[in-house]
Design brief:
Helix content: over 70%
Radius of gyration: 26 Å
Number of strands: 0
Distance between the termini: 51 Å
Shape: globular
Order of helices and strands: HHHHHHHHHHHHHHHHHHHHH
Number of helices: 21
Length: 526
Amino acid sequence: MSLQSQYEFLVLLLMAVIVLELAARRLHLPPAAALIVGGMALAFVPGLPTIVFDPHLVLVVFLPPLLLSSAYATVWRDFKRHSATIISLAVGAVFFTSISVGIAFHFLFPDLPWAAGLALGAAVSPPDAVAVKAVLEKLRLPTRITTVLGGESLVNDASGLVLFHFAVAWTVVGSFSTLDALGTFTLVAAGGIAIGFPLGYVGVLILQRLASSELVITGTMLLAASSYIVAERLGLSGVLSTVTTGLLLGWRQHEIFSAATRITAGSFWKILIFLMQSMLFILVGLSLRGILDRIESSDQAMSDLIVPATIIVVVVLLSRFVWLLGSDLLWFTLGRIGLPVKRAPAISVTLILGWAGIRGPVTLAAALALPESFPGRDVILVSAFGVIFVTVLAQGASLPLLVKVLPSTGLQTSTRLAKDEALARMNVSNAQFAAFSALSSVPPTHEEKCLLDHYHNRAARPLSSVLEDEMKSEGMPTRPSAAMLAAIKAGRLELLRMYRTGEISDGILRKLEQDLDIQEFGSQSL
């Protein structure tokens, strides 16, 4: 296919993305499910070229920006609070599922090496960040659940991919050492974090010195790619390196980015992630043609491929629930014998966490990365596609109903959120009033008096009030002043102080910071 034909096909896929997104909204389906089904339908359109899903290209092009974006939006304080559950799922559940799938695979194909089944288990065990974010972004879930699922999907790709490489090497070499594997896994994981932190720190120093929003946005994209590539070239975890860089960048972004950069970058990254996610899921659907070609080429497709793949899918789904229920039982037992347990297990949370184990493009990329001569490659590919198909279409589509039926746990009450937000607005307005008063004229001009009254009125509101008083255009300044910019800066510093000390949540920080960004951006645009 010529370069012109490839470009035309890309345009066709982008048109399909719009149609499928609209269909998903009309049918109230997760966009990822509609995109996969649409890609599957396109795979059978006569005249369309056969798409070769290059796994290595997918990982290096798509994974770094998607990981950086997810880590950037992660609340570090919540991530640390639920780190035990995140590590339990990202490492423990991945290993448990991989071993369970490996045992089932060996039972189905006793003539094939154990490592082949372990490679399949490692490919299908970790829910990946792309799929989880695509399915969950439109759901209103408790903070605990979104933090755990988001954190798990950021970390577990590293454990799954490392285990996958071990299994492939075991198949080729024919020998395996548990101690060596654990030591190498620790080195790869710790090394990835060790690479990501200094790269992120240096990246932050460089980004905060760039005056142009366009340069900052370009720099963040290069930072994501560099963090991943450098770690991978050193034989370390590119996933954990990129995640570490993203977490550091997200933590510092409130201080290093201007209002204009934050607003512009937010719009850019939103569109970029939307396009990348959409293209990935369409590519997953298009890969069905190659999967079906392998099924059709098998003399006993039902017994050799379809039935074993169905069993593997069931084992993958059940393994996650078994691990979660076992973890809950352990925490419950520790609490009963008097050991300190931060949070008692809740069955509704467990069910949602178990049902939200969505697999996606990373799973398929890992399976496709196997060499053609790898033992059992056909059944591994069919099983991987089956796991993606079931988790995205069945679990992803039914997850909103499950969330609606089960009782909500872990959600802050609306009263508490309103009180925290009102307190934050009052403190920010007090800081702005003080800063503006110190720099305004004596006596204040009419425009300055309007702003002083505005800040004073906002600060004087009762805590129970959560009505947002927007600045009236009448009487407001027609051009920015040093006092006005100082007031915005003072409000931002007070907001960050409250966030750093834990007085307000990340959601309130982002909401009020956006208000300040709009004020600053609007004043600079005058």
